[in-house]
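Morning, I've got a small favour to ask if you have a moment. It would help a lot if you went through both lines with me. Thanks so much in advance, here it is.

***
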Amino acid sequence: MLQDNRSILDPIEFFDQLAATSSRREEIIIEPKTLLNSRSLETVKPSSVKTDNHNSKDFQEKWIEVVKSYKKEKQTLIQHLSNQLTALEEIDDDFDKANIELHNKVENSFYELSKSILTYQEQLYMEKQQFEYEKELIKEIRKFQEEKVKLNVGGQLFETSLSTLRKDPNSILATMFGEDGGTITPDADNSYFIDRDGTYFRLILNYLRDLKIPSGIMNDPKIMDELMQEAQFYRIKGLMKLRSCNLSIETQEELQPQNIDSTAF
């Protein structure tokens, strides 16, 4: 009987039923997707858009707050840096002023110190000159004391030094009291006798000391004549030149050395 039913079923009808069954299955399968998509568009999608708008608004508000905070911090930092820069400029100005003031003080101190040192050097130099002068003077005094000679000229006593008697190296006096012992010996009283008039011997000694004679003597012909006789005897060439040349001072550098026979006196 089944075989009869199968043989009775038309093939075209079979495929139509199969197709109808397949269509109903597709509708059953597709319908949930369609409902889901429809719900997503109607419910989910609008809800998502609403959430994005809300988040965007919150983000914008927070971003504005961040920007305001940044600007405020930036302005505060700029003001702080400006204050620091002003403070540094003030410090730099104070440093320049202090540097100039210190330089001026150092320069003034150096000037005053240099001036004091220069004054002290001048004072030391003057003291040194005075010391050298006194030293030479003391040396001359000691030398005079060591070289002191007592002369008896025609009964008149004179005291002088060997340096004075040797002032003119070409004179008889330099020969008599030469460094090699001289040609004259002292008497019992330790004086040296010279057989000449002692009236003008004082002028002879003064000339040997100062290399000049007073103008009053130069203007007195009588005294000059007698003095020239004594100068010729003692062979003091510089003194003899004073009359002819009328010189106030005659140095011994101008004298020409002469050989004197010491045995002749």
